[in-house]
Amino acid sequence: xxKGELVATIAESGDMTKVAAGKALDSVLAHMAEAMExxxxxxxxxxxxxxxxxxxxxxxxxxxxxQSIMIPAHNVVKFRPGKKLCEKVKI
Length: 91
What we know:
42% of the residues lie in helices and 30% in strands. The chain is built from 3 helices and 5 strands.
């Protein structure tokens, strides 16, 4: 499912226009990103939680040349599914 399909589903189930559903989804995603940018964990009960962790600098290898390179430290977003989501998709 892509964003357009999700917006259409939200609009249909929420009895609203696609424009309103799109704005609502964009707002939710923007607020989630802002919270994670501040270092906060975003938890959606029954679905899961998102949080940012710092990945340390590590050695890597260029697959084309075989040359060793250092991959700099960087932040990544982690997702941990909630109990209800795990039961739904049978994880």
